[in-house]
Specification:
The chain has about 260 residues and is an all-alpha fold. It has one domain. α2 packs parallel to α5 and α6 packs antiparallel against α9. The longest helix has about 40 residues. It starts with a helix and ends with a helix.
Length: about 260
């Protein structure tokens, strides 16, 4: 598996899209710090960008990488190597490379600006950690979609629809549901429904960490009301961890049963 991870990582490091992704975040960090001149405000702005853009990039890169490396994957499958080793190796190699581009792209400008000496250094590291977790989650989801669909067009279509649903449509449907049934106690339902959207969980986790109650929204306010800030942060992080583990487990199960 480590050899496959290394190959996938080096292969992606030779791709110009990895450098484009890295340069985008590098320029974004410098621009935000230049315009805001305040690290805390720059982090809040980055939060809104990362929780939408990182899942999109992870989804697109995951589907593209799977379909583009399918011939090499079939060659590996002809070797005495476990399927789970092949696909988990490719998944981890892609996720690590995207996460590294994100961490270095944002880390360099903030380190130059002096975030280490700032009082919000842990908030910044939390933001990078959540961006990394989202990369792992959505790369895994895109691999699942690609494994289930041999047709590239279908795979890309389902991947984009998945991102669109979790990033935009889910919150819209959730808001409509709250408005229609506003006469009923919906606190428990809100907590339960939030667990099914890693983007919402990431937003709540960051806002609880930053302690910005005005931006929490309904679900974030319910989290804070029921669990408090520290327990809410812990439960959000545990839920996101399950969002990483379960799709990775699904990749193993689907790859073992798939007829190549």
């Amino acid at each position: 598996m480590f050899k496959i991870i290394k190959y996938s990582f080096y292969d992606l490091m030779r791709s110009r899209w990895s450098y484009v992704y890295f340069i985008f975040y590098l320029l974004l960090g410098f621009v935000l710090l230049f315009l805001n001149n305040d690290v805390s405000k720059a982090i809040i702005t980055l939060m809104n960008i990362i929780i939408v853009l990182t899942p999109l990039i992870g989804t697109i890169f995951g589907v593209m990488y799977y379909y583009n490396s399918r011939e090499f994957t079939e060659l590996l499958l002809a070797q005495p190597i476990k399927r789970s080793t092949i696909f988990l190796g490719q998944y981890l190699g892609l996720s690590i490379s995207l996460s590294l581009s994100l961490v270095l792209g944002l880390g360099i400008p903030f380190l130059i600006y002096g975030v280490i000496q700032s009082s919000i250094i842990f908030n910044f590291f939390s933001l990078l950690l959540i961006g990394t977790i989202l990369s792992f989650i959505f790369v895994a989801l895109s691999f699942i979609i690609a494994l289930k669909n041999e047709n590239k067009i279908k795979g890309f279509g389902f991947a984009i629809v998945l991102w669109l649903f979790l990033a935009i449509i889910y919150d819209g449907l959730f808001l409509i549901f709250l408005l229609v049934f506003n006469d009923y106690p919906l606190d428990n339902f809100s907590l339960f429904a939030t667990l099914f959207n890693p983007i919402d969980l990431s937003r709540i986790l960051i806002l609880l960490k930053l302690d910005i109650s005005a931006l929490l929204g309904y679900t974030g306010a319910v989290f804070e009301k029921y669990f408090g800030t520290q327990l809410g942060i812990f439960l959000s992080f545990i839920s996101l961890t399950f969002w990483v583990i379960l799709p990775a487990w699904a990749i193993v199960r689907i790859s073992e049963r798939k007829d190549f």
